From TrEMBL:
Designated name of the protein: Beta-glucuronidase
Every Glycosyl hydrolases family 2 sugar binding domain range: 61-235
Record-stated family: Belongs to the glycosyl hydrolase 2 family.
Signal peptide extent: 1-20
SUPFAM superfamilies for the chain: (Trans)glycosidases, beta-Galactosidase/glucuronidase domain, Galactose-binding domain-like
Glycoside hydrolase family 2 catalytic domain mapped to chain residues: 331-627
Keywords: Glycosidase, Hydrolase, Signal
Alphabetized InterPro entries for the sequence: Beta-gal/glucu_dom_sf, Galactose-bd-like_sf, GH, GH2_Domain-Containing, Glyco_hydro_2, Glyco_hydro_2_AS, Glyco_hydro_2_cat, Glyco_hydro_2_N
Length: 633
């Protein structure tokens, strides 16, 4: 038995390498997988390395109403002996066959044609009463017409599926993916047919202790296909990936790379920025990779007050990709954060990927723009997109609207620090986030986690993530939201992770989870780190419209007074250079059970669940107006 298993393993690995080589994609450390099920953190079965700027490719959107079947016992995936249908000899038998009865006597116990439908992109929790708290498997099916051309490569792309996805095209398994907030794609060329095609996805949002995030989070576990689904068409040789940014510490050089893939990857690539009069060519090596490092005359730098984006064209190997890229530098010097060499104060706000007015995950530019517009109304120049990678549309919108971004992976609270699969999963999600958004000027911070409890295994785990982030991108800051430590009346940071990251960034809930409004001013911060201090969370719950005195919890007045007290406390930190109070708008959470004040909502929003601005909204805006006068835009 063992001999056979080893042979399968060898075959599986060999196939991966041969495919990877043919496509010009190096099989990457995280990509090694055992035949059958990929290890957590590995790029999924037959998954392709990301295609950069998928929206810039010729593509068909598969968004729309998908039929769905709720499958709490995974009856459409396992037989009654709990054997996976798609691992059987025939590979058939699962709901992904989309089988129809052959005649009136034929036995088939599912039917997508008669099933209800839901919007994709869109979580299922907010689209059907019986799915509001559902955790498990839902099958989703879409039908579409295609006319594949010989010599072209077809990629089936998912912006995100929470949490685990198994994807089938015309009954053939393309692969599986774990991770609820990062894109993935499969090579669909072989399975794609002329005419009618059937794509079926098994989506499963079950939480797992060893997953990223783990079982305990303070946000709703929205399941399903929560972002765009596209079928992209690529030429036989294509521009798979690229990075083009100003060099770290030298704004007169453009640095990055181009990665070609497909039949003949070693083809010259021309990069041009017509408006800047920049054109240069690079010659990829045999694996399709070319490094970019060229001098450039001064460009108009991207900044919140002037979010300049340049049209950039990459062409080579018969492929051409257009992108809009902003160029800026971000660095720290002592306790200052320098944007384009000038000190800046990060006037921020934290937000979840959820618009209180439109139940569920953000669905498109409309509700994303509403959230970011609210942030602009606060006079923010910075947003913390908590606690997981938001969509590519969101970071492109931030590019356009001039909002700097703190991007974060959901390494949140009590992760399984000693599990190597969990570390691989975290590294995979961090890598996918950085690879997707490495050309977005708005993204200035990569955060490797939030409020993770200090410990030897955790310190090693987080240190590994910091190294991964720095290895992938040396042009941005790397940080995390740390926890504080109280010594009597002093608030300090005693976290070894603080030595590895670029900011002294931490969450503190003076006046809410400890001390009250009346007591919090007795405390003082004693931050002994020669780094810019960014307070990544403070706040208080307030039920919008509930008014009382400033000592009555849950009232708008209590929240408002707490913000005023926070500004007084934080002004005592010499190195304070930013803050992202918690949180822009009320959001849903299964951990918030107070029947009157919460009702499964976290009420720390400055905007209520019916879109009304609470008193503290105006207090923060007034404070930011003063900060802008003092520190500049
Ligand atoms: C924590 C955590 C948030 C949470 C918030 C709260 O610090 O980072 O995700 O929602 O505090 O308790 O409201």
């Amino acid at each position: 038995m063992m001999k056979y298993a080893f042979a399968r393993l060898l075959l599986g690995f060999t196939l991966l390498l041969s495919w990877a080589a043919a496509s010009g994609q190096e099989a990457r450390p995280g990509d090694v997988q055992l035949a059958g099920q990929p290890a957590a953190g590995a790029r999924a079965d037959a998954a392709m390395a990301p295609v950069q700027n998928i929206y810039g490719r010729s593509h068909l959107s598969l968004n729309g109403r998908w039929s769905y079947i709720i499958d709490p016992y995974e009856n459409g995936f396992y037989d009654y002996r709990r054997q996976a249908f798609d691992a059987s000899k025939s590979g058939k038998g699962g709901f992904y066959d989309d089988r129809k009865p052959k005649d009136k006597g034929d036995w088939v116990e599912y039917d997508f044609d008669r099933a209800p439908t839901m919007k994709v992109p869109g979580d299922w929790n907010s689209q059907a009463e019986k799915l509001q708290l559902y955790e498990g498997t839902v099958w989703l099916r879409q039908l579409f017409e295609a006319d594949p051309k010989p010599g072209r490569r077809y990629v089936l792309y998912f912006g995100a599926v929470n949490y685990e996805a198994h994807v089938y095209l015309n009954g053939k398994k393309l692969g599986m993916h774990r991770g609820g907030f990062t894109p993935f794609q499969f090579d669909a060329t072989a399975a794609l047919k002329k005419g009618r095609n059937v794509v079926v996805v098994k989506a499963d949002n079950t939480r797992h202790q060893d997953a990223i995030p783990t079982v305990n989070t303070d946000w709703w576990n929205y399941g399903g296909i929560t972002r765009d689904v596209l079928l992209a068409e690529l030429p036989a040789t294509w521009i798979a990936d690229y990075k083009l940014q100003l060099a770290k510490g030298d704004a007169r050089r453009l640095q990055g790379f181009v990665q070609m893939a497909g039949a003949s990857p070693a083809q010259k690539v021309t990069v041009s920025i017509p408006e800047a009069g920049v054109t240069f060519a690079v010659q990829p090596d045999a694996k399709g990779r070319a490094v970019i490092d060229v001098p450039v005359k001064p460009l108009v730098y991207w900044s919140p007050q002037q979010p300049k984006l340049y049209a950039v064209e990459f062409s080579g190997g018969g492929d051409k990709v257009l992108d809009r890229i902003g160029f800026r530098t971000i660095e720290t010097r002592g306790q200052d954060i320098l944007l384009n060499g000038k000190p800046v104060f990060l006037r921020g706000i934290s937000l979840h990927e959820e618009n209180p007015l439109i139940p569920g995950r953000l669905r498109g530019q409309g509700d994303m723009r509403m959230l970011l517009q609210w942030a602009r109304e606060l006079n923010c120049n910075f947003v913390r997109l908590a606690h997981y990678p938001h969509s590519e549309e969101m970071t492109r919108l931030a590019d356009e609207m001039g909002l700097m971004v703190w991007a974060e992976v959901p390494v949140y609270w009590t992760i399984s620090w000693t599990n190597p699969d969990t570390l691989r999963e975290a590294g995979r999600q961090l890598t996918d986030m950085i690879e997707r958004d490495r050309n977005r000027a708005s993204v200035v911070v990569w955060s490797v986690g939030n409020e993770t409890p200090i410990g030897e295994a955790r310190n090693a785990f987080m240190g590994s993530l910091v190294r991964t982030a720095r290895g992938l991108d040396d042009t941005r800051l790397v940080a995390a939201a740390l926890e504080i430590h109280r010594r009597g009346r002093d608030i300090t940071i005693e976290d070894p992770l603080a030595q590895l990251i670029d900011l002294a960034s931490f969450n503190e809930y003076a006046g809410w989870y400890w001390a009250s409004n009346a007591e919090m001013l007795d405390f003082r911060f004693d931050i002994r780190l020669d780094k810019p201090v960014v307070v990544t969370e403070f706040g208080a719950d307030a039920l919008g419209g509930y008014h009382a005195d400033a000592d009555t919890r849950w009232s708008e007045e209590y929240q408002d007074r707490l913000y005023q007290n926070q500004f007084r406390m934080l002004s005592g930190i010499p190195g304070l250079r930013g803050m992202t109070p918690w949180v822009l708008a009320d959001f849903r959470s299964p951990r918030r059970q107070h029947p009157y004040f919460q009702d499964f909502w976290n009420r720390k929003g400055l905007i209520s669940d019916d879109g009304k601005k609470k008193e503290a909204f105006w207090t923060l805006k007034k404070h930011y107006d003063e900060v802008e006068k003092r520190y500049g835009p």
